[in-house]
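A reminder from the course coordinator: this example appears on the midterm review sheet, so study it carefully.

Given structure:
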């Protein structure tokens, strides 16, 4: 691609097979970006600008609206396996709580939109084996001093 084309890539995206993807909305200037050091996609975890001091202001570089998709997101609890609409509603509510906009959950892919990358999280950990606990994906807003945007998966103990 020419420098002129790299200055305005439409719907620029990065995908890690079987893990997830990030698609930035609109035109993005990717000239001079060291994508390997700026974007990290792992299992249920996306980090953008891991070094906060390297992040541009909101709306510039990769710190702008994007759609994040996690692959292989399935409910572990039987109550969600038999009622995926309930699980989808749970994911939607959690996305809204963190300030993101839930887009869809279909066939193990959870997609949501964020306006920028400044401290969101979906972290992975086990809290309880309680039959009444929610689990699998806890989305919540979080200020992180080490990175600008981080998303990962976490189990949640709250009751539905």
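Designed residues:
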């Amino acid at each position: 691609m020419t420098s002129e084309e790299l200055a305005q890539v439409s719907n620029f995206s990065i995908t890690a097979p079987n893990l997830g993807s990030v698609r930035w909305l609109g035109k993005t200037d990717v000239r001079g970006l060291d994508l390997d050091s700026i974007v990290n996609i792992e299992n249920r975890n996306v980090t953008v600008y891991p070094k906060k001091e390297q992040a541009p202001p909101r709306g510039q570089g990769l710190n702008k609206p994007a759609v994040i998709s996690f692959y292989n997101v399935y409910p572990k609890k039987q109550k969600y396996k038999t009622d995926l609409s309930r699980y989808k509603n749970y994911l939607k509510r959690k996305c809204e709580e963190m300030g993101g906009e839930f887009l869809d959950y279909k066939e193990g892919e959870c997609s949501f939109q964020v306006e920028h990358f400044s401290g969101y999280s979906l972290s992975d950990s086990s809290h309880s084996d309680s039959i009444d606990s929610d689990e699998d994906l806890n989305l919540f807003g979080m200020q992180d001093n080490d990175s600008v945007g981080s998303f990962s998966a976490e189990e949640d103990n709250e009751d539905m």
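The two ends are 50 Å apart (CA to CA). The longest strand covers residues 101-106.
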